[in-house]
Input
Amino acid sequence: MAEKIMTLAFLAVSAIYLFESYQLTFGTLSAPKSGFLPILTGIAAAMLSLVLIIGQVSCKKLEKRGKADWTKFVFLILGLLFYVVLFNMLGYFATTFILLLYLFKVADSENWLAPLILAAGSSTALYLLFQKFLGVVLP
Amino acid sequence: MDVWSLLLQGFYISISPGNLSACIIGVLIGTLVGVLPGIDTVSTIAMLLPFSYGMDSTTALILFAGIYYGSKYGGSTTSILLNVPGEAASTVTCLDGYPMGQKGRGGAALAVAAIGSFIAGTIGVIGLTLFAPPLAQAALAFGPPEYFALALVGLIVLTKLTGTSILKSGLMAAIGVMLGTVGLDSLSGISRFTFGIGELDRGFDLSILAMGVFGIGEILTVMTQPEDHPEIPRLKIRDLYPNREEWRRSVPAMFRGGIAGFLVGLLPGPAATISSFVSYALEKRCSKNPAEFGHGAIEGVAGPEAANNSAIAATMIPLLSLGLPFCGATAILLSGFMIHGITPGPALITQQPELFWGLIVSMYIGNVLLLIINLPLIGVFVQLLRTPLNILMPLVAVVTLTGAYAVNNSVFDLLWVVLFGILGFFLHRTGFEPAPLIIGMVIGPELERGLVQGLIICNGSIWSLVTRPIAGTILSFGAVVLVYSAGKWLYKAGNAREKIKC
Output
């Protein structure tokens, strides 16, 4: 099922891409323009997605995938998105500390002390490494 | 200057303290990556790209190359001891390595794998030294039609050779090409597929896509899976001596694997993995006792482990001499080059000989270091398998995110890394190979430039485009591969009464 949804998503993306490609100029064979390759690629991607979907619908064989903890997945994504949102507001050090603490807890750390120490130590070390040694300008 | 003088110059560069340290650190990290199942070479290089920002370009590339070829050494450890391949290229090593371990010859299998990797790695680097400069020289005669032909055939062969279905790989490559067209069109200067978002004018950085799909995608996959704790055996140094019979049987296999791996490595696709399977089949065919294969034949360890190391050096040839990466790992190496403002290709060897020859010689040195490091440290690496992932993965996630921000000091990039990470997670879950996506994105602009400029040169005549001697030869090769794979696919589909491989 997930495979079919993924292929459908690719078909939708290809259709949107193709629609946008037609807003560009195709040109001619002797003078191809900016829409030339995008239109050809969009058509190829849409056709491949279509053939794949037809195949997936007619195929009875099911591939077994390993189990995934979907609750943890949602929490991880939320954590990462909040990191992006808070990055400029709170600055690198505070945001990284919060994210690390959050990820350690999401990753099943039982107590609070070890994650707190690890998060504080790691965010300090990473701040020093990137800001001081590698010269990256961090907020 | 002759090749010896250039090699000597490269030697001076690669033994400087900074470069030698980078080589040692690179091969150590590479070995670790190979040992630890679930963490692959491409995602590691993607995650470590930010650490190279403050480095000299040669030092950074020596570090990344070290991780790349080092990872193929370590991959055999878990295959032999735990029946779990550390990375894809070592899958075939499980077939005979694990049975050897069960018979009490695991130490000998590990030693043969390390020595085979050293011999074949050296064969590969010699091949790289001999073939890359003349190919780069020849590539100076290439025009847009030839680059178009190379890029197109690269994509065709790639879709045939990646592990998943041809359709899925083809779709991934097409989506990759689509991603490569986002931003300002380099030929006309028109903004494409940006939806009015100014930040998208510069397009997607290859490193951002790689850090997301491979780095964050991998972290999400590992963190949402139940953690297994396999029993890890103890190993003593004295177990690491192959007996006389094992030596006699494994040495020819190492050389055969080295040569076969090098030839496979020149083709587009995941060369290291394919070469190990090719070598296994070759050893089985050459063996007087093929029935022994699968039950602990030492040639089944020596050949494939040699082949995947030799293939690694060969994959560097198209990257360094043509600027075209034909597998995921070299695509990431290319992003490492690009971060440091270096464009690999025909001009690299003549314009930056110190970088090229420094890198090549570091690979010779790295192979020796790997042999010295690997055998005594196997026990240590095995103990590292006990590293708890619930501590490791959050740290790696934060390093990757920081690195992604540092590429352009952009929170927008940070958001894309997360989104590409989600994409990478679902690609993994649904059996879509992410490597063609990355390669499609790298090759896409080259394909477009070659096609558009080629058609203009040939006055719009497709026939003139494909009948140029070099372009025609390359395209004919692609056509043969395409017709062969289509025929094989239709034949299989007919036999299995399945129209499409699911």
Remarks:
- The mean pLDDT of chain B is 81.
- Chain B has 20 helices and two strands.
- Residues 85 and 91 of chain B are 5 Å apart (CA to CA).
